[in-house]
Amino acid sequence: MIAVTGIGWLNRKExxxxxGNIIKRLEGLDSLYTSFKRESIFSYPVKNFSRFDAISKTTxxxxxxxLKDAGIYYSAGQKQDIGIFGANExxxxxxxxxxxxxxxxxxxxxxxxxxxxxxxxxxxxxEAAIHFGLSGPLLHISFNEKSLPSLLSFAGxxxxxxxxxxxxxxxxxxxxxxxxxxxxKDAVSSGKSLCLEAVSSAAEKTNFPEIIxxxxxxxxxxx
Amino acid sequence: xxxxxxxxxxxxxxxxxxxxxxxxxxxxxxxxxxxxxTAIRRIERFSTTNLQTQNAATVPGLTISRHESIIMQMIxxxxxxxxxxxxxxxxxxxxxxxxxxxxxxxxxxxxTIGAKxxxxxxxxxxxxxxxxxxxxGMVVSAACASSSAAVSKAxxxxxxxxxxxxxxxxxxxVSEFVTAGFSSLMALDSDKAKPFDKNRRGLSLGxxxxxxxxxxEERAAREKRPVIGExxxxxxxxxxxxxxxxxxxxxxxxxxxxxxxxSADISENEIGSISAHGTGTIYNDSMEIRAIKKVFGKRPLPxxxxxxxxxxxxxxxxxxxxxxxxxxxNRRVVPPTVNLRDTDRxxxxxxxxxxxxxxxxxxxxxxxxxxxxxxxxxxxxxxxIL
Lengths: 223, 386
Prior knowledge:
Chain A is α+β, with helices and mostly antiparallel strands.
């Protein structure tokens, strides 16, 4: 059986942790990095954060919140056998456009490597994996139906298959993001957790605000 | 990764095909590699004046067209030919890094809307339609390990009895978008990629598309499908180290290899040859040989890379290399590493510019990519499937 031990989320106005029942207002995504450092949500500075594309930033923010919610600690240089799977609607479309426009505007003389690296949809997940030391499998997946519930189910099955004892499942767009920490129920020793089925059901809502409302309404529905 | 139990369902390949810079079909690619002659040649599709190289491996006869993308020019004939043999309920997995990137290029150059149609989800819809399947599918993207990851997940879904028929389709093309990007990273050999060579300077881009129909062994037997080989084990890991460079000690890749051996329930001594990622970049090839030595010790195995011949076909690389690895298993010989002249000291005794024979019915195929992704698959020869 799979348990969800942490859920972190954010949008333009708020961010929070579902299991820890935390909701905080925010002034804007630009100020969030400073807040996260001050509140030790980032245990240490994220290398090269200022050059990240928008989805890499929201991915790292919500992964930090989810890990905090799950009580999973991380430190620089120490890797953990945790995977990270991601899905989102727009892939890396904006980064593709930004990179190619910049190249065309340069007169097709020199592209910028800093922009090119974000033209892979898996790169935001990789940025998170590097910062948090996640050495399990890393995949970006686009499902052609029920994206978030499909992602959660896919991650749960990968844990049962033995690919990693824990997997972060992330759906990150440029201004909204949610991240779930999935672990085998047997591996969860203490602390609150939610049943994957209940979380998946809440994730079936059609838009992000409804999903977050449904998730925060789950309360303490343990497996 | 759990080991394979005797009662586990086996995932077997029952059909596959590919188009590569050597031409249409597996045979042409195999013969091209065996000849030791590279398919990397001058790019004629777009201007290369300001790029790091003028060379890439493109499929002969494909041109930029108003009507059909390079990707669809590759995929359509392949899938049209196999569609009648694909069961309707088959789940489709598309593996690609950029999909139909020409659509985005055109949209940016003309300042028109429509870039969204370049998203791989859109391509997945076209593929499902060509394959004539019921509509269930997903896109897997893990940089240059995309299609090996897709094959792993297909095999995993079959082993778990979740599905019994999965079609994996992989593709990527040579474009100005990607060539300019790799140029900016100074990752390209200005001439032609020379994997595992002392004088290697970078990769050469390539393009390919292919498919693999994977079924449970039970279903394949019931439908009297010819079995090409078994996807016997797999491992996926991440270096968590650097966004474009591999972990220098090869620890991430060696962990993926160990996981794949455990998944296949075999020891390293049972592997007879290795299809390496072998891009031709200084760091990748060095990391890879270290990872291989970490697992296989001092027992040199025949190791080869196809990328001196086909170029680096990005998201399609894993699938192409699995198909060639099956061909290699069935012939008990690995192809030469094309363009290898002066073997790097670290790789001496492992790679060769000549074909190498081997006896074992099992081989390993590895890939690594940007973001630190690593994959390893254990492949088994058809007759040895019990």
